[in-house]
Amino acid sequence: MERKCRTLKAKRFESWFLGKQKRADLFRRSETSEVRTDDGRNKNDFSIGSLEMSPGVISEELRIFVGTWNVAGRSPVGSLDVDLAEWLNPNDTADIYVIGFQEIVPLKTATVIGAEDQTEATNWNLLIGKTLNDKYGCPWLTPTVHPVTNENYQYNRVPSKQISKDQHRYKLMASKKMVGVFISVWIRRELLERHEVTHVQVCSVACGIMGYLGNKGSVSVSLSVGGTSFCFIAAHLASGEKKGDEGRRNCQVSKIFRRTFFPRLSEGGGTGKLQPLSILGHDRIFWFGDLNYRLYLEDNLARQLIKEQDWEALRKFDQLRRELEHGGVFQGWKEGKIEFAPTYKYSAYNCNRYSGGIPCRAGEKQRTPAWCDRILWYGKGVRQLSYFRSESKFSDHRPVSALFSTHIVAKKCKHRDAPSPDKSNKNCKFSQFNRKTLYVCSEEKISMK
């Protein structure tokens, strides 16, 4: 009898949860088509993340690391200069690592119009896996859960048997390369054990030469953890610091918004398809990369402010900041306060001097230093904990990273409960991350702020 009651309760919850998801999907679609514009403008003050909670549903804190780096066409293989430890900072443990690269191959004719070669993507993934898992005594080759790499394939649900219980703390969940733009998503093993990671998909949008080649554009990953959807967009936008070049970048942003979609399967993995999910149809969205926005400032004045480390004065001339404030693109999006030196363009590898200047050295390009490498986010319930650059001299760009805190909404599952603080658990060291798990009554509403 008791067993039948438990089964009946489970069926009722499943019916409620699936109905809620479908209603949320319909609401997101109508909100996306009627309220959002192609360039991400927010016509109404819509609040993503206000969710009605019911018994058995929990809200759990999640930490997400987002990093971006233009590596100037250099390979990590055989180089003693590349060390990801300072940038990825694996000691400050995050639940999800999302890492974007630009120019992982030289942007030459053969690489832009030729067949995709995954060699460098594999090399960078191996180095990322080694960096994240090295402190746990893991070997160079990191097992994965068969990551999603193709736009024609998706995980409707990650099979639990693929979550191997070994030493490897982080698993490669999704990876996508388009010419030189590359994204890699890693998830902590304990998170995979506690929550279902579903609907993992990738998408690429080329908007470079002639508007359709992949030397510029974006690669994106969509996934859901529990009942919360995430979208990660790694982009490389048009270069140039002449008047009007920012307009080309804005056009590419709008094009990425229009062309990025993630087809979805019906519940239960059936053959029926739902309406594709757009970028703005997700709960939490992160957009990062070499966005190439420059400074509205003469070169000598910019260098003087950098020398004085007057970041507040320099930020006033930043193109992307003006776009965020005045709504050219990315209206409603947020960025943390920049309190570090511009990340582009350095003179040469292993050099701390910006390219150009007066006098300009022979063979150097005259470039006004700028914050080309940026990390933005959209959606309620996201809080930035840090935003900084690293000092690797491997490229003419410096890598940038940000750490975020957010929450996921998921079904409470007995075998996935967090251990109490006074009990040790080797497989799930939950207490060391100082998490707060909230159990909310059905009549309450929680707004992720």
Automatic annotation (TrEMBL):
Ordered alphabetically, the record's keywords are: Hydrolase
Q: Record's InterPro entries?
A: Endo/exonu/phosph_ase_sf, IP5P_plant, IPPc
Origin species, per record, is Striga hermonthica
The organism sits in which domain of life?
Eukaryota
Segments traversing the membrane: none
Q: Which GO terms describe its biological process?
A: phosphatidylinositol dephosphorylation
Query: Known Gene3D superfamilies for this protein?
Result: Endonuclease/exonuclease/phosphatase
Q: Does the keyword Signal apply?
A: no
Hydrolase: is it a keyword of this entry? yes
Protein name (record): DNAse I-like superfamily protein
Under the GO molecular function aspect, what terms does this record hold?
inositol-polyphosphate 5-phosphatase activity; phosphatidylinositol-3,4,5-trisphosphate 5-phosphatase activity; phosphatidylinositol-4,5-bisphosphate 5-phosphatase activity
Q: Which SMART domains does the annotation name?
A: IPPc (SM00128)
Q: Lineage, please?
A: Eukaryota, Viridiplantae, Streptophyta, Embryophyta, Tracheophyta
- Where's the Inositol polyphosphate-related phosphatase domain? 60-412
Q: Which family does it belong to?
A: Belongs to the inositol polyphosphate 5-phosphatase family.
